[in-house]
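Example 283, ligand D-glutamic acid.
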Amino acid sequence: MSIGVFDSGVGGLTVHRALVERLPAADFIYLADQANAPYGGRPGEEIVDLTRAGCERLFDAGADLVVLACNTASAIALRRLQQTWLPDYRKAKGKPLNVLGIIVPTIEAATGLPWEHEAERRGEKVEKLDILGVFSTQGTTNSRVYEIEIDKRRQDVAVFSEACPNLVPLIEGDAGVVELAKEIEERVAALTRRIGRAPDRAILGCTHYEIVADLFRAALPAGTPLIHQPVATADALERYLARHPELNPGTSGVRRFLTTGKPGPQNALVESFWGGPLSFEAA
Ligand code: DGL
């Protein structure tokens, strides 16, 4: 048995690394749907279908639990799959399989509140003191998931999202640091113009962006706190496994990396993030 980690591409490796650090003995299978990346500009129905296919592939490979290390899939597909597909699939397989997303842990980290907490609305206008910038794909931005879910819990936080549609293709395509930095500076400047000032905190709301977190740090005012999805997801997974002893994450330290795209080594940008060679098997 193992934990499956799913992303449209290499971005979920940032989450995988944090999960492995937290649970070093557990077995992990990573699946990158690189044949269909990027997801960010795809219609919702396609993202639902691709995410379901990715989960099935990971369950077939022996995962009992899949972590969707992809904001776009979590924002657009997760609730639908949990409501309409997973219950029957679980019954057919006769196992307590489950799929978790990345947005719930991120919102818990951003609000400092458990997901179950919903602010009491008394009707009076709450002054927004804390401006939170979210950088994400077009799909995640359009879903407004961060705006909606944070507003339910913390009415003193104003959320402004900025879509960065060019960034995933640049990262998957091994763009150079100059091109990446220019793109990121433009998106940070656009968000700053829209808010009227720089955000107080920021979420890198696409797992790919964590690979270039240093460039976001350089483009934002010095010391702007970043909410890190990999750590937030590792915290949430650890708590989830403690509550669900029936889910066995394995004990052999297995690491498998699958791709629906071209198997073999990953690009130089990814290997430099990873700190060494990384080869993917055909899914
Ligand atoms: N890395 C993914 C995310 O967190 C998806 C990026 C994409 O394929 O557009 O949203």
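Summary: The mean pLDDT is 95.
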